[in-house]
Amino acid sequence: MQKKIVITGFGGQGVVLAGRILGKAAAIGDGLESTLVQSYGPESRGGACSAQVTIADGPIHYPYIQHPDILVAMSQAGYDKYRERLNPEGILIVDPDLVQPVPGAGGFSIPSTRFAEEMGLKMIANIIMVGFITAITGAVGLESARETVLASVPKGTEEKNLKAFEKGWEYGRSTLKARARKAAGQIGVFA
Question: What CATH code is carried by the domain that includes residue 96?
């Protein structure tokens, strides 16, 4: 098993922290191998940045990702740069308030930035996204991700970040349930 994840956005969104949380959750919590390669422009806030996380159940021989299995785009420029590289069977996740995918791109979306603003702190959009990624992809375990979030955020912000993670997780689970009902032909049927 090997999952190659690229999270892309712009500086100040916490893209690298999101990648670090996924990698640590996999390695420490789930007992898997993981690598993190981060990239950002010379302008820290507002410049392009990305985190490349590889998670595997065996040795990882090359940490750089050419063709991600999971692409998480939190900026239009990041989406435009990586969308052609996404594996054909890959999973696309976007923040629809910041990214307009090409028609027919499919994938999943969560308005993580809007949710963060509604929760009173725009800086937690990345943690909402981590919760959503965890629910949608299963790349890391729920408890591993939850514990890593708590260990990775600044002291005094743990409760707010945990609520953000739960918001993303719940939104992801409800998205998957809705898709399953649709696939089963149960549109409009409440279970």
Answer: 3.40.920.10
